Amino acid sequence: MKKTLTILIVVILVIASFVGGYALNLSQNKPSQQSGLTVVDDGNNVVTVPQPVKRIVSLAPSCTEIAFALGIGNRVVGDTIYDDFPNATKNITKVGGVTNISVDKIVSLKPDLVLSYSLNYPQDIQKLKSLGIPVLTLDPKNLQGIIRDLYMVGYVTGTYSNATNLANRINTWLYSLYKVTSTINNREKLFYLGWYPQIWTAGEDTFINEMIVLAGGINIASTGYSWFIINEEYLITQNPQWIIVSQYQASLIPQIENDSALANITAVKERHFIVMNDYLLQQPGPQIFVGVYIIFKTVYPQYASKVNPLTVQDIMPGA
Length: 319
Fold this sequence. Notes:
Elements: H1 2-28, E1 37-40, E2 46-49, E3 56-58, H2 61-69, E4 76-79, E5 93-94, H3 103-108, E6 113-116, H4 122-130, E7 135-137, H5 143-156, H6 160-181, E8 189-192, E9 199-202, H7 207-214, E10 218-219, E11 227-230, H8 232-238, E12 242-246, H9 252-257, H10 266-269, E13 273-276, H11 288-299, H12 312-315
Parallel strand pairs: 3-4, 3-6, 4-5, 6-7, 8-10, 8-12, 12-13
Antiparallel strand pairs: 1-2, 9-11
Helix pairs in contact: 1-5, 1-6, 5-6
């Protein structure tokens, strides 16, 4: 496990450095400001974004969070009904839900750039593109992907230095965390509860798995891949000491506690539930790293004083 954690930390640091170099190489050979800046987004689309970008419409909370983290929340003129973080999003025009956006409303906002997510309906995205509106898909599958998206959005919005500073801040903190978690011998076993009674969880190749590992824990579902259904027998056998649940799904806790088959699981017996805001656990923006800190200090309070706190204010000043 120690080796796995070491590798993961190194990968995050290297990926951040690589993406920084990737964006810098683009800037050295960038076209004129009139033709725009070109990147390859998370949907593998080649997107040219005319400059400057003054008006942004975000089609998912995670996209909005990236914009605010880069200090350009004041450029977001439209977002979804699910955007509630930071508080400033309450004053932004809503263009619908993630899966039922209003193309007409988006067009009326005259955006220079639309930030989309994989759950947005493809036909709506295609319509926006056909109208000549640049659409950048942000769909990070892991923590490295979040760092990459910071650089990408920073590059096309003229806030690359902000992206670099934030990525460096995150990586420096991760290294300080690693220096502590690498000394932990008896690691706690954790489990992410995504749904019940069909018990959905997060395995390998998910940012939740990486969060657990970075926090010094063992994800008992890491034997599976991506998002999958786990059976109760396996959950009982693995006997997690902690169960992580998003605030949005906190109503699942009483159901788990009332399931007699799960009564002897340590996390259930000791009521070791870590309930976290959705934007710290399920929305792949940079504030996810604050979620890592919350897991760490909750599971290992005896080590908490050895690591500087990481707060939302550190990621998103003014939030």
